[in-house]
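Encoded backbone
================
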Amino acid sequence: MHGATTHPSPLTELAWTLQGRLDEIVTAVADLVVREIPFYRGTTVGPRALREGLRGSVLFVLDHLPRPAAEPYDISMPVATGRVRALQGAPLADVLRVYRLTFAFVWEQLLAHSQDSGPAALQALLGAASRIWALADAYSTALTDSYRQAAAERMVEADRRRSALLAALLDGPGADEEAIWEIARLLGFPPQGRFVIVVAETVSPGRSPLPGLEHRLRALDVGTAWRAGSGNEIGVLSLPAHCDERTVLAELEAACTARVGISPLYHRLDRTRRCLRYAQAALECLPPGRGAVRQLDDSPLTDLVLADPEGTRRVVGRVLGGLLGLPETERATLLATARAWVRAHGSAAGAAKDLYCHPNTVRYRMRRLQEHLRGPLEDPLVAGELAIALEAVAVLPGLLTGHPR
């Protein structure tokens, strides 16, 4: 007695038929993808790589379609495709659209062949429709998860690379012009442009002192490179020509949850290390415990103060140290009056307008202040010493504490 012959199921025959036309189907889908999705007209994913990916997608459907519904899927192919496309920088939306076009095309081919093969084949295919959509869902999920994981790894690696490049600007010895050009190229910055350094205090581990800032800056086309340090985050911002510096400062103020120091605007990337001192000093001058932003001016006096804080402390102590014995409120009033008087070029009337008081009040306070200086304010040398000391204290307020005479 001869054994019964086992005939393939209608779904198996449909899968075999389309596998016999695999090259034709892949070519048709590749043409459709290139026509419909601009990204795939470029050189990132070449024709051969695109066809290999499409071939795997088509075979994923045809291989799994005839199998029992309870059999697990082999998702190695969509996992590999998702990872490769993420590392190539392909937009996820475009990658998913390729998959949707492929599955739709394969479904149309299966439907057409089942109709040509007779009612049994068509009935079998329609009965397996839920299986096909489950395949599509499994493929999509595996592809998306793999893409996002690889994209996250790529982002972490890019952040590490950018952090290392930033460290070369901030910590290393002065780089030569060729090295600066290469660092700028890798960061996506111009070697000459418009830059500021931001130093933001990290109050709580794992909590950004500037939440949401990256999104705000991207909207302004501001390039960024960041490095997390001990107790702070340091960033270099590259401002496009059309971006107003005040707009960037406003975004920093809106985002900050801790103290933030900002350097003056500078134009050469090789000045980054020098300008870092400005941003650090600006942060240290802010009162602790609340979010605030401060930017120092780029002036010759600021350079001197930052270059030799101890020497400046001694100078300020000799000029203003006599005020330390006064009550804090009186001392603050005299210093505020002196700043207004200097800004008004020695005019009591001009200072009074700034302070909203009578000119005689300004004259009285300046006479009180003069008692603690090294001579009369009519002496240009004494007036000059006062102006320098006031500017130094404006840069580093801590200079007026504990000075030697």
